Amino acid sequence: MNGIALHPIEASTVAPEVDLMFYSLLAFSLGLGLVLTILVLRFAIVYRRGSRADRSDPHKRDPLLEMGWTIGAAVVALGLFVWGANGYIERDHPPEGSIVVAGFGKQWMWRFQHDNGRREINELHVPKDRPVVVRLAAEDVIHSFYVPAFRVKQDAVPGHTTQIWFEASRTGTYDLFCAEYCGTQHSRMRGRIIVMEPEDFAAWLAAGPATQSIAEEGEALFRSLGCSGCHGPNSAIRAPDLHNVYGHPVALQDGTVRIADQQYIRDSILQPERDVAAGYEPVMPSFADLVSEDELMKLVTYVKSLATEHSP
Amino acid sequence: MSVIASEPPGYFAQGMGIKAWLLSTDHKRIAWLYLVSLTAFFLLGGAAATLIRLELATPAGDLVSDDIYNRLFTMHGIVMVWFFLIPSIPATLGNFLLPLMLGAKDLAFPRLNLASWYVFISGSLFTLYAVVAGGVDTGWTFYTPFSSLYSNSHVAAAAVGVFIVGFSTIMTGINFIVTTHRMRAPGQTWFRLPIFVWTIYTTSLVMVLATPVLAATLLTIILDRVFGIGLFDPDKGGDPLLFQHLFWFYSHPAVYIMILPGMGVVSEIIPCFARRPLFGYRFVAYATIAIGVLGFLVWGHHMFVSGQSAFAGIVFSFLTFMIAVPSAIKVFNWTFTLRKGSVAFDAPMLYALFFLALFTFGGLAGLFLGQLAVDVHLTDTYFVVAHFHYIMVGGMVMAFMAGMHFWWPKMTGRMYPEMWGRVAAVTAFIGFNLTFFPQYVLGFLGMPRRYHAYPDEFGPWHLLSSAGAVVLALGYLMPLGYLTWSLFYGRRAPADPWHATGLEWKTSSPPPQHNFEQRPEVTGPPYDYPLPAPSRVEGVEP
After folding, report:
1. Complex confidence, ipTM
2. Which residue of B146, B345, B373 is in closest CB contact with A142?
3. In the 8-state DSSP scheme, what is residue A50?
4. For the whole model, what pTM was predicted?
5. Mapping DSSP to helix (H, G, I), strand (E, B) and coil, where does residue B272 land?
6. At CB < 8 A and 24+ separation, what contacts does A272-275 make?
7. A288 pLDDT exceeds 60?
């Protein structure tokens, strides 16, 4: 690093947008702050005790001025709100065709696993110009995935799956921080995001030790844990077939309908009695003590794959 | 002691022995009990801050271990929030002044008032035990499941301490609410109340409504830790995010518990030293209530990246921008109070003007954090640290110092040395900006909070911040010296050294035990300042 940093590197597609908002707010704040400072200084100097300034009619009230700045402040506040909310909604909707990576936070390291099964610790390789979704889980306490150069941050919360997406716009190595205090070595829970040209990334990904993909590992678990015994096509016990479930509405016993998203599949594995599908008996045992966060993520990925490979 | 013959002896005449202080139900003496205890806690929290800044002067974590560092910032936060900022102005200046401003003999429940101090001290013993026994490492926010399942520090003792101190807060709040309703002087209608009373009243309402939620939340942490009930433990069907909702449902209103009384102090001082009525008095009173109410509806803005739904995030962002409006109204009103005034720059006024500047720049930073897309980048970084220190230290502590100087003659019967007061105010202002402005830059660059060691690129800004902290510490130590000195050697203060209008100035300095010889009456609006100003009364030699 040469000199003193004033501005963080912009390395994602949202970074320039966030910075535009930041600098607009900065201009507005400094402008308003400057106007107020000048007013205070001017009043303080002109009307200092003993000065000969005109002070006639000092007790006049000015409701117009009052209403003026009340409404002015409200309009500015509303405008800022709308602008910021727009960017936030985008954050919730990753583009179609994103690369999906599983990310786990634990005291005090980050673990990642790519779609084809390649794993990394405290490093994440991603391609440039391609949206990447990181599905986040935490194995112990809350952590937060923060890449300042991308202007993105998302907490990883035990018991929840959260996600974050970004599209890197320049190659290089960028800091990954844990931004949610997580205990003794919180400040050591740092990693690197390595952005590569797409072809380099493809080569890097393929060069990994040959392992199964996450979905394949999930399928193996699905069998070894005995899930396939009931959820399989020829089972004796009636349990819903899981093909084409993910991403679709599921009617529940209590008459409500839920979209089968990550959280739903996860909850159904850990607390099967909570949201039982309509027409089925609540006979499934909880697998909470049998599967780790890691394995949960694999099972969810497998169930998700059942919805894409067999879709008509 | 030489007492001016024509005036009644002040409340000090009731005795200076230990018993006369520890058993008195006189609100003025209880204010001193709080002032002495809070000053001790401020120094304790300040000592932790000093070690934090020393550690952060260099990127490597080399001065203290990571565990010690985590305990230091936790202690700094817990002590400063619950043992200094929340009780600061209400328990000291509020206790001393509320009955005086209402022309009353005492608070509505004098014994409850004394009890509140003993409860405060008992709670603080638990927290001090937690510190001495090895500390707490959860941060003042006690986030679960770290605090409930994973931390190996004295979380339960610290939480019990804060739990107990909450009752002291509730007692004070109830006392102030009843006093304001029932004990106003004849003719003192609601819109003849000084803004200080409006803010103390609103603060008390928030205290009484919000503190029980904190109590319940802390209790559940203790139950989770000790009995493993698992309310926040996902393995037992609990949810860590539930804790954050409960915690911020209290802790965001708590921010207004901390800042509203500061706004009250400044609203007394600026009109007095500008010799003008407070501009838009009713707007300021309504804005105070609006802040109190809206303060309960914005807690989710602490959780924009926690995994709460995007819809919740958007609603909380909207409400957050709404609460900026009444705060902005106040800033405009204070500014325009100066217009056509006759402005003097005694130490209380300097502190009040610095409050105005720092509160404004802290508040404007709040817009960045309320704006969703920008907050995603800035939250949990030093930008947030800078933002709340601008409001809490730059705003609140400046206002506290302004009030201490303004009412010092009333509380002690002695004038503080004016030149020292001005030098200390300017020193604290410069030191404050040197310490905390660099932290805005650090936050924008991406420096996360609560980091014991950090990458080299953040080094220069941290070094500047640490250097500024030295100046700031000097600005706070000076008043400790000269105010104590003035207790014994300061010039005698007249009843009304500033030619101010409130009822508290209608009685002698210091006031007699029962405050007023005759019950005062109120016949007009507050801040009825005439122009031109009479020359200042300097006080008489002791």
Report:
1. 0.91
2. B146
3. T
4. 0.89
5. helix
6. A275/A250
7. yes
